[in-house]
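BUG: 3D viewer hangs when loading the predicted structure for this chain

Environment: internal workstation, default settings.
Expected: structure renders.
Actual: progress bar stalls at 90%.

Input used:
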Amino acid sequence: MNRFFTLFLSICLVLTLGLSQAQELTRPQQWYQLDPRQDQLGGISTNKAYESLLADRLLLPVIVAVIDAGVDIEHEDLKEVLWVNPREIPDNGIDDDGNGYIDDVYGWSFLSGPGGEVHYDTYEMTRELVKYSALEKDGKIAKGSKEAAYLKELRKKHKAEVKEMSKAFKVMSELKAANDAFLTEVGREGLTEAKIDAFKPKGKWQKVVKGYYGSAVKNKLPIVEAETKLLEGYEQVNGMLNYGLNLEFNPRHLVGDKYEEWNDAIYGDNRVTGPDASHGTHVAGIIAAQRNNGKGMNGIAANARIMTLRAVPSGDEHDKDVANAIRYAVNNGAKVINMSFGKSYSPQSELVAAAVEYAASKDVLLVHAAGNDGKNIDEANNFPQPFAPGGEKYQHWLEVGASSFQLNERMLATFSNYGKESVDVFAPGDHIYATMPGSKYDHNSGTSMAAPVVAGIAAVIRGLYPQLTAPEVRNIIMESTYVYEQAVILPGSKKKKTTIGDISRTGGVVNLEAAILLADKKVAAR
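Structure tokens produced before the viewer hung:
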């Protein structure tokens, strides 16, 4: 488990290359929509598919549930593509449709309640350490037992993470101090290249900050926005160290559920945006941002309707919340569920497995991000997992790794997890431009961005051919990947070479046009 790896990588890119706008010089803004053969970029042929295959065809609406931290339901590019519960009267304080959830117009939040909204939460490792330490204190863990060994492992890992995050927090604090010193001297208003050139930096971090804002001014990025970007690292590490790893922190009382009653599903409220909707809004935009409206960007699935389910805090999601979110999605008509989250421990994994199997019984396709640790998840834990408790691979589940825009040895994103048995496909997940809260747009990277690319493709296929089952849609997406046989750099390594076929089930990157053509062929052959 190395939560700081991708964070530190992104911060280094920002500080050395400047800003995301500078990176746009080397790739089109929505490169992932382009065609690999025609444009020589690692896209999924979205634009080509709409021009050549979808121009005169009916796409039925498909509900795509986004289980995440929240979605900005007022976003200019999303508000017209939201799922709206047709049986619920907004804001009347009544459960009109009788499903147990009051005023669930756009979805539901399992992270808010009478006490407020959960923003930060602990990591599952932290929660397990608290739980087993209490059992030890009460004399309920015998020396030499499996529980004792587990507790020892938890303490060792927690200590190592605290040490790592403490170092990171020191670095981020120094960067924040340098930022404050720079902007205090030169001012936030009317910042010019001349003012920046006149600044005499004291120490390496002030020198870095000076270069950063020089890039911001050259790229005409508003200083407030530039500062927000620069301080994102500080906020994330602060959350990791002082909340995620904090043995004394527990925000669950805010939700007000009967936490230990695993069958308790009726809790939470309808505040689906949450305290920080950045991640979920970005994911939703990749899937379904309104196409060709002259705003921002185009989503992959013009027919998708986004159902928002809050179950992922800044920390680790609770198994109970994930299971209930899946069940809510299934019961309220979702045919595709996007899950851009994951963790290393899952003490109630059976709850999630039961919900996953329930989704299978209702013909719902699950799409899950493989994770961003540059690891082989055939060997390293990454929950929820694409395998049933008996070990067989779920046939209604797609596990997704992240690829980049390059069609060469750097085709795979450096941070992506992989696995010959676990990961089904790769999809664009590096430097992806999509919606952000406040009707804004920005780039993000992660398998969290790759999964919604696949969810969008699935929504298109299910809209074209609703008679196809979830396993059939899964197989079409897998069988239609663009298979690349050349050597690529193994994610998480500097130079080690492999092939995509050696670290995934298909050896390919998903493609919308190819998936549609294969679906046409399979349906015609029936």
